[in-house]
Write a structure and sequence with these properties.
This protein is α/β, with parallel strands linked by helices and 394 residues long. The protein is built from 11 helices and 15 strands. A 7-stranded parallel β-sheet has the order 9-8-7-10-11-12-15, with helices on both faces. The protein has a 4-stranded mixed β-sheet with strand order 3-6-5-4, with helices on both faces. The protein has a two-stranded antiparallel sheet with strand order 1-2. The radius of gyration is 22 Å and the shape is elongated.
């Protein structure tokens, strides 16, 4: 057992890093994105902790740093957030007065060495999300692929989360081949509070905090109401409703600690506005998730956090990745309509006004509209469905 009032180092990292990240953010001069956050990597290996104790003999992994480190006073780790914020702000103000700059290295004895970097957009590229950290839940699938790719292409650091296993590992490996420095894979079961908290803590330890949360995790069930098994319904409720609540709550606590604002986007569905026969469990639970996001838009606004929604119609693939949702419900829909896979895709394309195929990239573009803050909007939903008259609110 640890002595009373002594908090484990990892817990201290996950509390201190977001506050430091908020204090280190630079004013941007942009009303829509008023702060430019830094990436804050934490090092807790023995070499780093030895350096944190004395700030002498810079570790080899920090040999490119040319500025003096900031050595903080030791913390108990159980201080209230505001006490921590005051303590850290005072230390940073003293360093800034002495050096006319922010530190690149911050040493916290017995806890960690924090390395500060400020990613800058490359000339000629639209990388307006440079330095921002995004979390995508339920990412290892078609829509997740499009969203992760879109965020990465605009400069974000992307935490790819999904249930642990081979599917997540292979998905992350594909993205790390593209950019290992700005992608990580983090197992997360959105139905388990401890798993959600652990995943956010891992991301904080890796990059210092989170700026964008895309709630994409969800499952479906095709079944008439009179045949719906209660436990099957509860399974959807746990993922689609409780999972949304748990991730929103964890994100909200982190946004408050960082004090940097942020963006949340829920991947909703056209079924909220136009539920389909045989899709009662899915339509009902996604409607509940949709409403939770709308409530979050009210509650998170004082934090400078915008919460919006994207409601796509059927998306069958993204890159080489098939939709997990359609892998589950597609066979039944094909059988009911006497169609093969291509015929089912054609059916969904031809039922919309534009006769448009809805792709993962289209969904990603809607997410990017919100997180790039093209308009001062919160609590809104973009339909990505080619135009479905039945889905028009009445």
């Amino acid at each position: 057992m640890r002595p009373p009032n002594v908090v484990p180092a990892f817990e201290t990292v996950t509390r201190v890093a977001p506050i430091l990240r908020g204090l280190l953010a630079r004013p941007s001069g942009d009303d829509d994105h008023p702060s430019q956050p830094a990436i804050l990597s934490s090092h807790t290996d023995p070499e780093a902790l030895a350096f944190a104790a004395t700030c002498q003999r810079l570790p080899l992994f920090l040999d490119t740093v040319r500025t003096a480190p900031l050595r903080l006073e030791s913390l108990r780790g159980d201080e209230p957030d505001e006490e921590l914020r005051t303590h850290l702000a005072k230390a940073l103000a003293g360093y800034q007065a002495a050096h006319q700059a922010n530190p690149e290295i911050i040493a916290l004895p017995d806890v960690a060495v924090f390395q500060v970097s400020n990613p800058a957009p490359a000339p000629g590229h639209d990388l307006r999300l440079a330095g921002r950290v995004a979390v995508v839940t339920g990412a290892a699938g078609a829509i997740g692929y499009g969203i992760c790719m879109g965020l990465l292409e605009h400069g974000a650091h992307v935490a790819i989360t999904d249930l642990p296993g081979e599917k997540l590992d292979q998905f992350v490996a594909e993205f790390q081949e593209r950019d290992a420095a700005r992608t990580i894979g983090v197992p997360m079961d959105v139905t388990e509070p401890a798993s959600v908290a652990r995943a956010f803590a891992q991301i904080i330890a890796h990059w210092g905090g989170v700026d964008i949360v895309v709630l994409n995790a969800g499952i479906a069930l095709a079944c008439p109401l009179v045949e719906t098994d209660l436990e099957a319904f509860r399974r959807l409720e746990r993922v689609n409703v409780e999972g949304t609540l748990l991730v929103l709550a964890e994100a909200g606590r982190l946004f408050a600690r960082q004090n940097l604002g942020g963006d949340v986007v829920l991947i909703s569905t056209k079924n909220v506005y136009a539920p389909g026969a045989g899709f009662g469990a899915y339509s009902a639970t996604k409607a509940a998730a949709h409403q939770l996001a709308r409530i979050a838009s009210l509650e998170f606004a004082p934090l400078g956090v915008r919460v919006n929604l994207v409601a796509p119609d059927a998306v069958f693939s993204g890159g080489t990745h098939k939709s997990g949702l359609w892998a589950e419900v597609g066979p039944g829909r094909m059988k009911a309509r006497g169609l093969d896979e291509k015929g089912l895709e054609d059916y969904y394309r031809n039922r919309n006004l534009l006769k448009a195929k809805v792709t993962a990239k289209h969904v990603a573009n809607a997410v990017l509209f919100f997180v790039l803050r093209q308009t001062p909007t919160t609590g809104a939903c973009i339909p990505v469905d080619g135009g479905l008259p039945d889905a028009t609110p009445r």
